[in-house]
Amino acid sequence: TLAQQQQQQRRQQQGSPLGSAGSARPRTGSPGQRQASAPKLPKLPFAAERVQQVCTQAVQQKPALAWHTESWLQVQEQAPEWTPGQTLPRMQAATRQQKRTASAPPSSLLPPVAAQPLDEASQEQQKQAEKLEQALSLLQKTLAQRHPLLLAIFGSYALVLRQQHGGPDPGLMLPYSAWVALLEDCRLIDAQRPGPKDKEFLGAFKASCSGKYPLSPQAPASDMLMRFEYFEALIRVAVAKYVKPGQCREVHEALGTLISEHLQGHLPADMRQDPNTFRANLLYTPCIDATLRRAGGPL
To answer: Which of 21, 39, 252, 264 is the most exposed, having the fewest neighbouring CB atoms within 10 Å of its CB?
Structure first.
């Protein structure tokens, strides 16, 4: 009967979300009911597939369209935040630029353009820039080679002498008193018999700090050097001691000489050791770890 045929068609359509080819779902019930009973199709990335197909067809079949598609992709890559209304004028401008480039004679047919010679001032500036870049590269290499030793010295003086002043960050900054003690231990200054360079060596502390300081021999006790400022202060001392008198011509040579003759030559051995190495050898052991775990509750 007709009712049985309609029921069989509905069962077939329920088994396939899209229904059989050429068949249509019978329009029964109200529009709201028909919309509620319609199956939900999965969302597929049609845009990505479409772009891939267009690019493939353009490259394989139409060279002109390939260039157009490539220009569109470049526009999207360079400025993905553009709206579609802004993208079309950009593509039209790129197309006009491509036509002008295609109509222009090739560069091989154009007469060669001679390079304009630099004037003396520009040549001197270029030489100075190259010399500065080379000097900075050599200085960075010297700091990298002596980095463990310099950090160990910084940590020793900052940790030992910082505790005398207190503060929230022991061992992370170098106070002025520790800087003076470091210079004295290195035999760069003599508190009993001040020399002509002492003021310049002590002034490296003030010149390397990030803050503003009065031009006085003493700096406030709250002023301290961070690690990178400590490196800068050592470089200033090396320049004042070796470069200005003419003993060394390069800054990296002066810094290496300062480290070899004064930091390694005169500092006590215990001040050249990394405090973390001492802690690691004595405290970071399985026995200590087991003891701390047993006493974890009270601790």
So the answer is: 21
Half-sphere exposure (Cβ direction) of 42: Cα atoms closer than 13 Å: 2
Contact between residue 178 and residue 153 where contact means Cβ atoms under 8 Å apart? no
Overall average pLDDT of the 33-51 stretch = 40
Residue ranges covered by each domain of the chain? 49-85, 137-282
> By the 8 A CB rule, do 252 and 142 touch?
yes
Distance of CA 158 to the CA centre of its chain: 28
| Whether the predicted pLDDT of 215 surpasses 80 | no
Here the tokens at position 292 are: 């701390």
Question: What token pair was written down for 186?
Answer: 């290195």
Q: What is the pLDDT of residues 112-148, one digit of tens each?
A: 655 667 677 788 788 877 877 888 888 888 888 888 8
Query: What's the pTM?
Result: 0.51
What's the mean pLDDT in 88-112?
Answer: 55
Query: What CATH number does domain 137-282 carry, 3.30.420.360, 1.10.238.10, 3.40.50.1110, 3.40.50.1820?
Result: 1.10.238.10
**Which alpha helices (H) appear in the chain, and where do they start and end?**
2-15, 31-37, 46-61, 63-78, 84-103, 120-145, 147-162, 176-185, 198-208, 227-238, 251-258, 264-266, 275-282, 286-294
Two structure tokens written together for 123? 């040549």
DSSP string, 235-272: HHHHIIIIITTTS-SSHHHHHHHHIIIIIHHHS-GGGG
Residue 26 — very low, low, confident or very high, per pLDDT cuts 50/70/90?
very low
